[in-house]
Amino acid sequence: MKTIIKNGTVVTASDTYPADVLIVDEKIAMIGRDLPEAGCDEVIDATGLYVMPGGIDPHTHLDMPFGGTTTADDFFTGQRAAAFGGTTCHVDFALQTKGSSLKDAVNTWHEKANGNAVIDYGFHVAVTDPGDAMVKEIGTIMESGVSSIKVFQQYKGLFQVDDTTLFRAMKAAKKSGLLVMIHCENGDVTDEVTKALVAEGKLHPRYHLEAHPALIEREATARAIALAGVAGSKLYVVHMSCEESVMEMAYGRSIGLPVMGETCTQYMFKFEDDMKVDGYEGAKWACGPPVRKPKDAAYLWKSLADTTLQFVATDHCSFNYEGGKDGKKPGKELGKEGFHMIPNGIPGIEDRVPVMYHNGVNLGRISLNRFVAITSTNAAKALGMYPEKGTVAIGSDADIVLWDPKKEHTISAKTHHMNVDYNAYEGMKVTGWPVRTILRGKSIVVNGEWKQEKGAGKYMHRHQGMVV
Ligand code: URP
Ligand code: ZN
Ligand code: ZN
């Protein structure tokens, strides 16, 4: 099958130039001016459109048991929504359960994705059961196509690991070339403060903020960077939310440590005040680390632009606001009796790319090429999927988004494709929209029309990544 994309403007993390792109089967075969159409099965006119690599979301939670329920989007609904928003690949967290192996976690996640996947995907393994077996397994998990593990300094009694475990995991990861990803918040402090707040009857969603102050994110970030520095391992700090922790990242990078940082779309648009409203509405924005202040959002934008931060993910972790009825899985309503029982997470897998384009590129916060870097290329590089994914280059997978920089769209839960009853960007008017999403040469969304077969998404057997 030969497809040619004519008259578009190719945009990568480094270049913007007019060119035609020839796709043969699943790969990009040629890029050049005035490529011939002869012999092509399909000719796509991309006049006025950007030809960009499909978005890569490095941090998602599909079909994940958490917070007394399971996330609302499974692999089909979540990935389908991602494709509508211009994302062609994501890496989801396979959660180890107590008493089982890392490999078991990967197998469980394969079962969730098999037959449902509609875009390409990989797995990080979230290490929750420390011990010698875990350290030994870190040495072999790359054989399963997993080149990154996640550890938690938060969620005491559930996922949190102590510093000994963390350090041992980092050393084992270093030995086998794995990337260590980490949730940086001091879980001991959150646990203590939460218990005290609950004992005082402070149960409103706003108290979630008091249990997750920026200082404990900063402390945990500094500690993780220091331990990684001593262990010599690569480190990727997930969902960084505030100026304080990003300053620690800047310090780590300034002394040459192989450390990288991710923020998430919601931290630029949702704030503490959104959680402080009367009633229960604030529960929608309960996540860890929590949403912060507008001045933090400004710092995150600046840090994405100046390369202190390298990735924008979604941490897509969807829970219905009014779940547990009308066929919906239980969700945020589980925390009505107390903020400590709100399932933590915010949806956004569909919105990330357009939201970042409009608010980043159109509003002059980041360049077009930086936008591609932070929404696609850097994730492919760091997570061991480059150059198959994350760029428009000869030999790469033809994962391409045709982007209309003039097309307007208003984001709403009424029209989104995520299986969740609210949207973090409700009413946001964006200019710039994916008019065609192509996965390995196949057009899977065309002008809002779904074209993909269930089960056609492919597992990415990832290799060792690099520091970006
Ligand atoms: O609140 C969040 N972030 N939920 C997802 C789990 C995690 O820690 O990433
Ligand atoms: Zn986390
Ligand atoms: Zn997460």
Provide a descriptive summary of the structure in words:
With 468 residues, the chain is α/β, with parallel strands linked by helices. The protein has a domain at 68-362: Alpha-Beta Barrel (TIM Barrel). The chain is built from 12 helices and 19 strands. The chain has helices at residues 75-84, 102-113, 132-138, 163-176, 187-199, 207-211, 214-231, 243-254, 272-275, 294-305, 352-362, 368-382, and strands at 2-11, 16-24, 27-32, 42-45, 50-53, 55-60, 65-66, 69-70, 87-95, 120-126, 148-152, 179-183, 234-237, 259-264, 311-313, 400-410, 429-439, 442-446, 449-450. Helix 3 runs parallel beside helix 4 (163-176), helix 4 packs across helix 7 (214-231) and helix 7 packs parallel to helix 8 (243-254). It starts with a strand and ends in an 18-residue tail after the last strand. The model has no long low-confidence stretch (mean pLDDT 97). Residues 59, 61, 315, 317 line the site of one zinc ion.
